[in-house]
Design a protein that fits this description.
- Helix content is 31%, strand content 20%.
- It is an alpha+beta fold.
- Among the domains are: 49-161, Rieske [2Fe-2S] iron-sulphur domain (Rieske Iron-sulfur Protein, 3-layer Sandwich), CATH 2.102.10.10; 215-331, no CATH class.
- The strands form 4 sheets. It has a 7-stranded antiparallel sheet, with no helix packed on it.
- The radius of gyration is 24 Å and the shape is globular.
- The structure holds FE2/S2 (inorganic) cluster and fe (ii) ion.
């Protein structure tokens, strides 16, 4: 392994518990107060954060709050586009949203609950009660306007950044932004959103989704349906799974292979919703008897070509804005999970996607949200989801696959405190994304140049199940 980290660009001592070996992630990073504090001061104030979905603020005057750590930001649909404001009265700092999480205030704007100062939807101050009591310099018009926060739009979401000097959102995401757009990301609407508070560090939660290596044990129903697929990716060989999952059955015909694929898609759909949509499963089931070549591998390949073509044609015919799935699979390949650093990720398969966002609440607590996203014909959009349905993390109301993931995350958080457990022991060829991700965090904590950090983030795109890479710092 020649990849270096914590090298020239990171000053000695600036990162608590730095990564010095890219295959080994020091465990204190997942609970230590000093590390958490370093993240709150040097990571979160400098990164682009998915703040809301645009459909939540469709009209001028609509606003929604985004909270991160101790900060509250108002995302406002202003007269000409989206603006973001820091949620604090310019008099003595009271949040001007009066405890509400969203609202609509086109004509009335905001009124501070303390002394009644007012602002319009552009953030300009429109009223100061008892003005004559203040000295002239306290009433400077520009200075009374709400403090703006950087906001940029991508993927049907507004993203905020507290750092005025950070590279732009698209410079940070890199080419993945265009690839996901080619798959129709901006045409998707949320069908539902669930949230929970997990007793785990936000990175433990994120990293549970950075590899498929856990599927065999955590989501056994998936491997049992398609052992050949998973064994080819993770097992020692097709027959020897060491008891983790079933061995591959080499005698399946093409037709049987296709049926297993459809069953697997069905399990993904029931277990995840948006990742594979129920309307796609309906189409898959109608194609079980299409003509296929004899060869089992070729049969599956051929079937997917037909399936994707039929999804495209049938959903387009209903007026849904879907891409040509076979064309974009070639022109803009994407992976099963795609990460937008630091805390948002998407699971795109066909026309729909699941989306996850994970925010820290403390060194060992995080707020975890899941959306199911799908395209709809104009006028048939699902009702706007303004707030998540909050459930306890062990609720049986979560879809099956997140339920299984949530069963491990809190216990892993306990395990990392064990005496003698010093580091996460990563597989360099399949858990590389975790290392790359953690070393970008070190880059932020260690003061690496912002342009270099943005470039390093581009390397996260398409790296699910991937290798440890050189980040260029
Ligand atoms: S603190 Fe808002 S008007 Fe005084
Ligand atoms: Fe999982």
């Amino acid at each position: 392994m020649t990849i270096m980290t914590q090298v020239k660009d990171i000053q000695d001592g600036s990162v608590p518990f730095p990564i010095t070996d890219p295959e080994r992630i020091p465990v204190q990073r997942y609970y230590d107060e000093t590390f958490y504090k370093a993240e709150t001061e040097r990571l979160w104030p400098h990164v682009w954060q998915m703040a809301c979905r645009l459909e939540q603020i469709p009209n001028a005057g609509d606003w929604i709050e985004y909270k991160i750590l101790e900060k509250s930001i108002i995302i406002m649909h202003a007269a000409k586009g989206i603006k973001a404001f820091h949620n604090a009265c310019r008099h003595r700092g009271v949040p001007i949203t009066e405890g509400k999480a969203h609202g609509s205030c086109e004509n009335e704007g905001f009124t501070c609950p303390f002394h009644g100062w007012r602002w319009n939807i552009e953030g300009q101050n429109t009223f100061v009660y008892g003005k004559q009591k203040f000295s002239e310099r306290q009433l400077d018009k520009a200075d009374l306007a709400l403090k703006t926060c950087r906001v940029e739009i991508w993927g049907a979401c507004a993203f905020i950044n507290l750092d005025d000097n950070a590279p732009s959102l698209l410079d940070s995401i890199g080419p993945l932004a265009q690839r996901l757009e080619a798959h129709g990301l901006s045409n998707l609407r949320a069908e539902w959103c669930y949230a929970t508070t997990l007793p785990a560090n936000w990175k433990i939660a994120m990293e549970a989704f950075m590899e498929g290596y856990h599927v065999m044990k955590t989501h056994p129903q998936l491997q049992r349906t398609l052992p050949g697929l998973y064994n080819s990716m993770y097992a020692f060989n097709m027959q020897d799974t060491g008891g983790v999952g079933l061995p591959t059955n080499p005698y399946l015909t093409g037709r049987e292979n296709v049926k297993a694929q459809v069953k697997h898609l069905e399990l993904l759909s029931e277990g995840m919703a948006g990742m594979v949509h129920a309307k796609e499963i309906e189409i898959a089931k109608e194609l079980l008897e299409v003509e296929l070549p004899e060869d089992p591998m070729l049969a599956v390949q051929t079937w997917y070509g037909i399936f994707q073509d039929q999804i495209t044609k049938r959903l387009s015919a209903k007026g849904e804005p879907v891409p040509d799935l076979n064309a974009v699979a070639v022109s803009d390949p994407i992976h099963a999970v795609e990460f937008i650093f630091p805390h948002y990720f998407l699971l795109p398969m066909f026309t729909s996607m699941s989306a996850y966002r994970i925010r820290p609440l403390g060194p060992e607590s995080c707020y975890f949200e899941i959306w199911s996203l799908t395209p709809s014909a104009p006028g048939q959009e699902p009702p706007v989801v303004m707030a998540p349905i909050e459930l306890p993390y062990d609720s049986k109301d979560f879809p099956a696959i997140p339920q299984q993931d949530y069963s491990n995350i809190p216990i892993q958080q306990k395990g990392v405190h064990a005496q003698g457990f010093e580091f996460m022991r990563l597989a360099e060829n399949v858990e590389g994304l975790i290392s790359n991700y953690e070393r970008i965090i070190d880059g932020y904590l260690g003061g690496v140049d912002a342009q270099k950090l943005a470039k390093a983030q581009h390397l996260l795109g398409g790296n699910f199940d991937g290798k440890i890479v050189d980040l260029g710092f």
